[in-house]
Design a protein that fits this description.
Blueprint: H1 2-16, E1 20-29, E2 40-43, E3 48-51, E4 57-63, E5 65-72, E6 79-85, E7 89-90, E8 93-95, H2 113-116, E9 122-125, H3 127-130, H4 142-146, E10 152-154, E11 162-164, E12 172-176, E13 179-180, E14 185-186, E15 191-192, E16 199-205, E17 219-225, E18 234-239, E19 243-253, E20 257-266, H5 268-272, E21 286-299, E22 304-321, E23 326-344, E24 349-368, E25 371-393, E26 396-418, E27 421-423, E28 431-445, E29 450-464, E30 467-472, E31 479-485, E32 490-507, E33 511-522, E34 524-527, E35 538-541, E36 549-562, E37 567-584, E38 602-618, E39 623-638, E40 647-648, E41 655-664, E42 669-678, E43 682-683, E44 686-692, E45 697-702, E46 708-709, E47 713-723, E48 727-731, E49 738-742, E50 746-754, E51 762-770, E52 779-786, E53 791-799
Parallel strand pairs: 1-7, 1-8, 12-17
Antiparallel strand pairs: 1-4, 2-3, 2-5, 5-6, 9-16, 10-11, 12-13, 14-15, 16-17, 18-19, 18-53, 19-20, 20-21, 21-22, 22-23, 23-24, 24-25, 25-26, 26-27, 26-28, 28-29, 29-32, 30-31, 32-33, 33-36, 34-35, 36-37, 37-38, 38-39, 39-40, 39-41, 41-42, 42-47, 43-46, 44-45, 47-50, 48-49, 50-53, 51-52
């Protein structure tokens, strides 16, 4: 009996002491040396596997033994290697693209990711397939493709701004190689700043972000740039109706260091200028944008890698009219830079250290005769962070990290002069703040069917001096007094805990149930005077008056795959509670911030949103695509608006339908179709207008906030892509046989038609008045302004 009890006591120790070994390394593209994100490593005999992270690294710990290990990635030849795991093994694997006619996919990743992952509302997009979809004016756009997903809504006709599950445009965290992008739009929102030729991977999270992400409430759009070809030089580009782009990549030192540089510019100004007469009043007016994206990579050793990436882009809008003597310039743009160091401490411990710079600035200058007026604003960040991943086992992965951000805001800077006379508009106001966070998250399998992901994030925010607070008289709105804070002196401090939770339970019929919870703080805000995200919108920090925005989201979903994972379906429901939201007060304008604080122009309230999202995706075969439908409701309550009555948000939509389909007619011909339908935007309208003899002025009576709807929005687009042959035949002089040789230059043509049935969708409403003022019979007349009719476009793309 005593021996039996001894065995029972030792059994857990003996079981724990089973020898386990770790297989780790990097998975790369055989032709270019680019790391592959989300590639699968799988051991069929024991049903264990892992996937490569965003840097292509994988780690798999299993009991020692001899195994057949399969490496696979969508569109690549599967590789199986026999590996003796009697000790830890480091193995870098290169996968070659499939030479067979492969089954195309639009959304890539693990075949069972739809049902197996604990993350809800997460989708990876394949950049190559995005290029086959209909393009607005010939320009492939990542953000317009994002708008076709359920739960993601467009902010307007042709616009790249987007809203996620009832959140505002400032509640989306947009990252380019880890660097936040504060204004992701060119041409006043009609194009995004992201050049698709330089992008490798797009990860969208809208169902409650993991603990490693923070600073925003609604979603994460994490965009990873290409590393550049480590083996040989290549180039690609395109020439469209309004813009051209060019990308060059190659090795600095073969298999050790690489680079990629990508540039893009519009040339509307260049094309139009010769047709404008020198004597024309508007000669010299024009608009163009340009951007430059670059990345350099260096494999220092087996354990160390360096990445340096950056983006710089500008929009330049100039208008001149000689007849009235007016001249104004509107430049704005972004600059980002990321320096990252990857270090492997061992086969299980992976560290990523990143230093980030981000800058966005906007300027407006105008002159009429001798009078000149200038206004500018912007935000600049310096960010340092570290992220640590510990691959404890195949059933347990722990991530932890921290970050620190130094913010500098310029809410509004104004200067004015008349001739040689300078008007006193005060010094340029700069607001400084610190933001920091630390997190830990652990994903582990409770059993074969039940997986949990727990995360906890602690965030803090501190506004510091120099700063001047203007105290307002609540009766007349005039400044009563001021409080001055010295350099480095604390103005206000906020902090909070942000718990995150998600789970997945596998059902026996290749389906799963998932649930999620996320609690987020947002300390940096956007004050918008328009329903469309414009460069005039102001970024500013939390303050004594502006509390941090707080978002709490609950979600539940059912996910199922059919026909050997060829079809993926999901239904998700969510409820989101939002606190401390902001809006401009009635009739407030950015220039009112001169000799004042931004937050004195704001009003504050709360909101909520709930909805259901339905998603069907055909992931394999010549015919593929997806259909997404969202039913939702988004409401707001502000004490200073409509007496505190609840009203729909300006982006509240009951119905939102998106269809994106593609069909490969042959290896060279592809057809793409897009159809979208959405409930009309909520809008406030003037209901009547009369002259008040008592007040001696015209009075307009408006509806309740967003009490009306524009007509529904719907549109159909179509595209045809012809891809030239990538190989050519030649006769082998020795054998006389026909052989295939890869062409040095190959190209494709994309023909797109935007708004194919010429739908007159509303862009905004214009109001006019008719009637007799003397007897108060003024009538309000509304007119719909539509922006884009049917728009055909053509783009020639090339690679070498």
């Amino acid at each position: 009996m005593k021996n039996f009890l001894s065995v029972l006591l030792l059994l857990p120790i003996l079981t724990f002491a089973q020898h386990k070994q770790t297989l780790s390394g990097y998975i790369k593209d055989k032709a270019s040396g680019e790391v592959l994100i989300g590639a699968t490593v799988y051991i069929p005999s024991i049903s264990k596997g892992a996937t490569s992270n965003v840097y292509g690294f994988y780690s798999l710990t299993v009991p020692e033994g001899s195994y057949d290990v399969t490496y696979s990635f969508v569109g690549y030849e599967e590789v199986t290697k026999q590996i003796d795991l009697n000790e830890d093994v480091k193995l870098n694997v290169e996968l070659g693209e499939s030479s067979q006619v492969m089954e195309e996919v639009i959304v890539e990743g693990k075949a069972n990711d739809n049902t197996n992952s604990t993350q809800m509302g997460q989708i990876d997009l394949n950049v190559d397939k995005i290029k086959s979809l209909p393009a607005f004016m010939g320009e492939v756009d990542v953000l317009k493709t994002i708008q076709l997903l359920p739960g993601v809504q467009s902010s307007g006709e042709g616009n790249t701004g987007f809203y996620v599950r009832g959140g505002g445009p400032d509640q989306n965290l947009i990252l380019l190689d880890g660097a936040p992008v504060y204004n992701a739009s060119h041409l006043f929102g009609f194009f995004s700043v992201f050049n698709a030729d330089a992008i490798k991977n797009i990860n969208m999270i809208k169902g409650g972000m993991p603990a490693k992400y923070g600073t925003k409430l609604a979603s994460v759009l994490d965009i990873t740039m290409k590393d550049g070809n480590y083996k040989e030089f290549h180039g690609e580009g395109g020439i469209g109706l309004i813009a051209s782009r060019f990308t060059l990549e190659g090795p600095i030192k073969k298999d050790t260091a690489s680079f990629i540089i990508s540039a893009r510019r519009t040339y509307i100004d260049v094309l139009v200028d010769p047709f404008i007469k020198e004597t024309a009043a508007i000669k010299g007016s024009g608009y163009y944008f340009y951007d430059l994206t670059a990345k350099f990579n260096w494999i220092v050793s087996d354990k160390d890698r360096l990445f340096l990436s950056g983006y710089f882009g500008r929009d330049v809008f100039t208008y001149k009219d000689k007849n009235i003597g007016i001249n104004f310039d509107v430049p704005w743009g972004n600059a980002t830079g990321s320096l990252r160091w990857n270090h492997l401490f061992n086969d299980k411990l992976f560290l990523n250290t990143t230093a980030i710079f981000t800058d966005f600035d906007f300027g407006f200058s105008s002159s009429v005769d001798d009078f000149r007026f200038e206004i500018s604003s912007g935000i600049q960040d310096w960010n340092f962070k570290q992220d640590l991943t510990y691959f404890m086992s195949t059933r347990n992965e722990i991530q932890a990290g921290w970050n620190f951000i130094h913010h500098r805001f310029i809410p509004t800077s104004v200067s004015a002069s008349s001739g040689e006379t300078e008007f006193d508009t005060g010094e340029t106001v700069k607001i400084f703040a610190y933001e920091g966070a630390a997190y830990i998250q652990d994903e582990f399998d409770v059993n074969e069917n039940f997986t949990l992901n727990f995360g906890l994030r602690y965030s803090l925010f501190q506004q510091i001096g120099p700063f001047t607070r203007y105290h307002k008289n609540p009766i007349n709105g005039k400044t009563d007094s001021t409080t001055t804070y010295g350099k480095g002196e604390q103005v206000v401090f906020y902090d909070g805990w942000e718990p995150r939770f998600s789970m997945r339970y596998l059902l026996p019929d290749k389906s799963s149930i998932k649930a999620g919870f996320a609690h987020n703080y947002q300390y940096v805000h956007l004050a918008s005077i328009s329903s469309v995200s414009l460069p005039t919108d102001l970024w500013f920090p939390s303050s004594e008056l502006v509390k941090p925005q707080i978002g709490t989201q609950y979600s539940l979903g059912y996910f199922r795959n059919f026909n050997n994972n060829a079809w993926e379906t999901s239904v998700e429901v969510y409820y989101k509670d939002l606190k401390n939201l902001i809006e401009y007060k009635e009739n407030a304008q950015p220039e009112d911030n001169v000799a004042d604080n931004v937050d004195n122009q704001l009003t504050f309230g709360n909101g909520y949103s709930y909805g259901a999202e339905f998603f069907v995706k055909k992931a394999k075969g010549k015919f593929n695509g997806w259909i997404g439908y969202t039913w939702s409701r988004t409401m707001r309550t502000f004490d200073d608006i409509d007496g505190g009555l609840e009203f729909p948000a300006k982006y509240d939509r009951r119905h939102d339908l998106s269809v994106a389909l593609q069909y490969d007619i042959t290896d060279q011909w592809n057809v793409g179709v897009i159809f979208v339908y959405a409930t009309g935007n909520a809008i406030s309208l003037p209901e009547r207008r009369f002259y008040s003899f008592t007040e001696n002025r015209l009075i307009t009576v408006w509806s309740t906030r967003n009490g009306y709807r524009m007509i529904p929005y719907h549109r159909g687009d179509i595209s045809v892509t012809y891809t030239g042959k990538t190989t050519k035949e030649f006769i082998d002089p020795d054998t006389g046989e026909k052989m295939q040789k890869k062409k040095r230059l190959h190209s494709s043509w994309n023909f797109s038609v935007y708004n194919v049935y010429n739908r007159r969708n509303p862009y905004f409403l214009f109001f006019d008045y008719s009637g007799d003022l003397s007897n108060n019979t003024l009538d309000v007349n509304g007119y719909q302004i539509s922006l884009f009719p049917i728009l055909p476009s053509i783009t020639w793309n090339f690679k070498f």
